[in-house]
Amino acid sequence: MLSKIYSASCFGLDSFSVEIEVDITNGLPQTAIVGLPDQAVRESRERVKSALKNSGFSLPPKKITVNLAPANVKKEGPSFDLPIALGLLSASGLLKPDTLHKVIFAGELALDGSLRSIKGALALAQLARKSKFTLVLPYSNSREASLESEVTILTANNLKEVVSWINGESTLKRLNTHWLSPEKNLETDDSTDFSEVKGQFHAKRAAEIVASGEHNLIFIGPPGAGKTMIAKRIPSILPDLSQSEYLEIVKIHSAAGLCANGHLLNLRRPFRSPHHTISQIGMVGGGSFPRPGEISLSHHGVLFLDEFPEFRRDAIEGLRAPLEDGCILISRAKENLVFPAQFLLVCAMNPCPCGFLTSPQRACQCSMNQIHNYHRKISGPILDRIDLHVEIPAIQYKDLTNQNVQESSADIRKRVNHAREIQQKRFPASFNKTNALMSVKDIRKFCVTTKNGNLLLEQAMKGLQLSARGYYKILKVARTISDMAESEMIREEHIAEAIQYRTLDRNWWG
Ligand SMILES: Nc1ncnc2c1ncn2[C@@H]1O[C@H](COP(=O)(O)OP(=O)(O)OP(=O)(O)O)[C@@H](O)[C@H]1O
Ligand SMILES: [Mg+2]
Ligand SMILES: [Zn+2]
């Protein structure tokens, strides 16, 4: 007997529908899965057999063929386990056929028949809404799927529950699809609040500038200076997420399989900190079944690259295009995919391999050659794209033991929100545009400097031999600094502060 079950799978961030046909005929007992399955789909044969047996169903010893249509698209992952199991039961006459109409099933089966979460549940929910199908999902995917409204989503814990629902013997839990209100979930986590960072006002000021204008930043300092500590707290001073930003973030994380059991649904901006051994594909995305890389997982949040010079060169170079475009294009033989990647890049490095080159307390053990090689690892084009270069000295004992209350993230965020409002008024035509994203034309129009400011800029250009990009970066950062000071004109002191954030242009180590 022949049966047909509807399912869906993800490609990139979006999903496409898949029909699962199962044919059971007389012949040697064997099972074949066709229709370009990957290894995980092929292995589903064994999982499904055990899950069916352990859920109390027995299949006749016959020849079984499972076809995943459309047959010309590669299928990945274990999410077809549930629909394949249902297809087998249906082809054996164990399911009422009328309920199967207009329902998409997806879920991985454990050997005991329970359902495990799948990747891309939010994209599946969007597909179900568009095609007006009901969606049946594992219970552990509930929270991410519930963000999609105007769609019927049912969740189950195991295969047996789904079978009894199809046969009209019981009901399944229906998801309340809703939007979580951002205000409700914004209580900051005390463990990552700026109030914990003692002293280091220069670095905190830089963090505030970065958050206000969406600039990129590199911290340079000795071990233990607090580079990692401050970087981790930057998301806590970024503006609140809008609903559309939040949905974009969850969709990317859902496609990467990182949302099961409600992870990342706390409405905070992502903070990603990949290890320096990460591959280029891990960083920018791609692969035979294209996955979002770290740059997309930090969309609307912070990508923190600790020990920056240790990263692989190709992984770093891969950041160049997305830093300018806010997205990454993954080229495929048949079609191209675009993953969003608008992230705030924060890097950290020591000034030399031993870490103490700039330390007044400890002597540096490195040779000149070692220091040069260390710095050569970070290429000029990447440094050029980083707006603020900030030196963090080791914290002084008196600062560390100071009992004064430090400013909290919530207080800093208020000022950041205010600076963002000024930028929103400046660029009314483009939602959420920031100073860092200004084009050269925008810079000419909006970065008007005082006469003295101009003179200073000219001197810096000559003295520091800045590139054109370096010049524009100074103007953009100065624009943000003057917005923070609520000044329409960019004044001399704003330019002076922006210039001092170009440390690495000055070859200060050599
Ligand atoms: N300004 C500070 N206020 C309070 N604690 C601090 C400060 N700076 C550093 N610390 C403490 O020192 C620890 C180490 O800091 P952190 O890991 O940020 O250093 P780092 O600069 O990243 O060093 P490395 O170069 O070794 O990675 C922190 O976990 C924190 O407990
Ligand atoms: Mg560190
Ligand atoms: Zn050294």
Coarse structural class = alpha/beta
CATH architectural grouping of the largest domain: 3-Layer(aba) Sandwich
- Domain tally: 3
Q: Please tell me how large the radius of gyration is.
A: 27 Å
The unique ligands bound to this protein are: adenosine-5'-triphosphate, magnesium ion, zinc ion
Q: Percent of residues in beta strands?
A: 15-25%
Query: Overall mean pLDDT score?
Result: 88
Count of runs of 4 or more consecutive helical residues: 21
Query: What is the spatial order of strands in the main beta sheet?
Result: 12-15-18-11-19
N- and C-termini, Cα separation? 78 Å
Question: Quick one: CATH superfamily of the largest domain?
Answer: P-loop containing nucleotide triphosphate hydrolases
Low-pLDDT segments: 181-188
Q: How many strands, which pairing sense, and closed or not: the largest β-sheet?
A: 5 strands, parallel
Number of strands: 19
Characterize the overall form: elongated
User: Briefly, what CATH class of the largest domain?
Assistant: Alpha Beta
- The helix fraction, in percent, is 25-40%
Q: Would you kindly provide a written description of the structure presented here, covering whatever features stand out?
A:
InterPro entries: CHLI-like, Mg_chelat-rel, Mg_chelat-rel_C, Mg_chelatse_chII-like_cat_dom, P-loop_NTPase, Ribosomal_Su5_D2-typ_SF, Ribsml_uS5_D2-typ_fold_subgr. This is AAA+ ATPase domain-containing protein. It comes from Candidatus Danuiimicrobium aquiferis. It holds the Pfam family ChlI. This protein is α/β, with parallel strands linked by helices and 510 residues long. The chain has three domains: 173 residues, 2-Layer Sandwich (Ribosomal Protein S5, domain 2); 225 residues, P-loop containing nucleotide triphosphate hydrolases (Rossmann fold), CATH 3.40.50.300; 73 residues, Helicase, Ruva Protein, domain 3 (Orthogonal Bundle), CATH 1.10.8. The protein contains 21 helices and 19 strands. Strands 12-15-18-11-19 form a five-stranded parallel beta sheet. Strands 1-2-4-3 form a four-stranded mixed beta sheet. A hairpin with a 6-residue loop joins strand 16 and strand 17. Helix 20 crosses helix 21. The termini are far apart. 44% of the residues are buried. Bound molecules: adenosine-5'-triphosphate, magnesium ion and zinc ion. The site of adenosine-5'-triphosphate has 16 residues, from helix 8. Zinc ion (ZN) binds next to loops.
